Amino acid sequence: MTTDPKQHAVREVEYYAPSFLDKFMNFIERLPVPYWLTYLLLFIAQSTVMHILAWVDGWLPVFTSNPLIFLFPLWQWLPLAIMTYSRTVSRQALSTFSPLLDAEENELKRLKYEFSTMPSRGVILNGVVWGIVYVILTYATFDTFYVSYGLGMGTLLSVVLMLEGLITYITGSAIYYYSFRQLSLVNRTVRMAKQFNLFRLGPVYAFSRVTSLIGISWMVMLSLTLLVFPIQLVSGLTLVILALQVVLAVAAFVLPLWFVHLRLEDEKFRLLEELNRQFELTSEKLHHCLENSDMGPVTQLKDAMLGLTAESEVLNGLPTWPWQTGVLTGFLSATILPIVLFISQLAIEKFLVK
Prior knowledge:
The protein contains 14 helices and no strands. By secondary structure, it is mainly alpha-helical.
């Protein structure tokens, strides 16, 4: 009995089953329309259904809206859109970084599979945990949300809204599991590199796109959430979550690539040490010529010193942080945005109350 080598290779790579979310995202990507358009249409459809229920229920006047209606659809489909896009970015980053890896083809296939697929067990466990968190939060804030803010909301709409929130927490929360898993994979992959070249930083910069995308995604979701989240419901817990999101975003951007920074620092130090040794040898030769009144080689030694000085300026100017300036600027801008939005909302609310 013979075994197909290709099938054997696939079995080696696919050592865990893909999650139901991965299967869903794969299905969306195979559709004849862009995946982002599909998610946008699903967002619009869910928001429309909830608006209709709110009008029928009488909580909202017909053809009026409430920003809160968009909250759960936002957290339902935006995380899936981000994860779908991020999987493509991760695969591209791995392909760019792979020349630095001393890895066999099967190992690269395994890494590509891991960057593209979440284990089913991890996604289910994450959903169960966040589902429990949602139940606890709903119980703790029921009076504030459904009685005070949701005054006039009927039983049917309340039940549907709670079920919508539960489903959203179970599925949308996968963005957290996905993000931490991707960051762990980035950290593990960059540690597999044998050596970094300060003069060829293209591969080194590859994974900064992944880490910055994750950090920026958290900030974008937080910014959009603040735009639709009722400012009246802001509490001390909201402030803690805001601060935690910012801290996590910064950590997501920096920590997985910290090892690369240290390796680049070591490489830069090694090159500067070699350069200083050349300075020392050239300086000794120059002094020897001067002491012996042998002026013949002096001109050449002088040019050598100038060349070494120019090289020193180049080496000292080489960056050791594994991201380009534009990536860092974009990340910092995205980090500041939700803070500005939150402060603006508080200021407007305080002004209107007066």
